[in-house]
């Protein structure tokens, strides 16, 4: 199972309820505050790179790890998103969705020149995740679309 805890076995009403929880967590006041903080922390990163599979690895961070580091939190690299949610004070559904997006949504991209599939680089992951975070922020609360 992935860090997000997502699996292919969910469906029907369980999936419908879960997607509702994710959407509520993203739209809610706490979720929007967290996403704005995350966007600011991402833009402030010196090295625009995100790792997968861990909050922190060799001084680099996953998307959730960026906020933990920005807050000065020392994470024991929780194995699941629920522990990360508790550490960061966000809904479990939001933490799982961010972990899923970070770790599983951009693993391979087709190289248009060679036609082969290549693993996403940490820099590409940063660009993709920054765009995802910015898209989740409500229009009225969206900061300037800075970054790279």
Per-chain topology:
Blueprint: H1 12-27, H2 29-44, E1 56-57, E2 60-61, H3 63-70, H4 81-88, H5 92-104, E3 108-110, E4 117-119, H6 122-136
Antiparallel strand pairs: 1-2, 3-4
Helix pairs in contact: 1-2, 1-5, 2-3, 2-6, 4-5
Question: How much of the residues is beta strand, in percent?
Answer: 5-15%
What Rg do the Cα atoms give?
A: 15 Å
Number of domains: 1
Instruction: Please report the distance between the alpha carbons of the first and last residues.
Output: 33 Å
What sequence of helices (H) and strands (E) makes up the elements? HHEEHHHEEH
Average of pLDDT: 87
Query: Tell me, what's the shape?
Result: globular
| Total DSSP E strands | 4
Order of strands across the biggest sheet?
Answer: 1-2
Describe the main β-sheet briefly.
2 strands, antiparallel
What is the structural class? mainly alpha
How many distinct helices? Answer: 6
- The low-pLDDT segments are none
Measured as a percent range, the helix fraction is 40-55%
Question: Explain this structure to me?
Answer:
With 148 residues, the chain is mainly alpha-helical. 51% of the residues lie in helices and 7% in strands. The strands form 2 sheets. Strands 1-2 form a two-stranded antiparallel ribbon. The chain has a two-stranded antiparallel ribbon with strand order 3-4. A hairpin with a 6-residue loop joins strand 3 and strand 4 (117-119). Helix 1 packs across helix 5 (92-104) and helix 2 (29-44) crosses helix 3. The relative contact order is 0.18.
């Amino acid at each position: 199972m992935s860090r997000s805890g997502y699996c292919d076995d969910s469906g029907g009403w369980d999936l419908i309820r879960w997607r509702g929880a994710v959407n509520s967590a993203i739209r809610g006041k706490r979720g929007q505050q967290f996403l704005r903080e995350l966007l600011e922390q991402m833009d402030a990163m010196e090295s625009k790179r995100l790792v997968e599979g861990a909050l922190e690895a060799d001084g680099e961070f996953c998307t959730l790890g960026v906020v933990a580091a920005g807050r000065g939190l020392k994470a024991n690299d929780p194995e699941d998103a629920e522990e990360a949610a508790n550490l960061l004070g966000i809904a479990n559904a939001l933490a799982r969705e961010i972990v899923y997006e970070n770790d599983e949504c951009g693993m391979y991209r087709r190289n248009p020149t060679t036609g082969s599939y290549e693993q996403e680089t940490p820099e590409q992951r940063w660009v993709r995740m920054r765009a995802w975070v910015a898209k989740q922020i409500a229009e009225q609360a969206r900061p300037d679309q800075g970054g790279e």
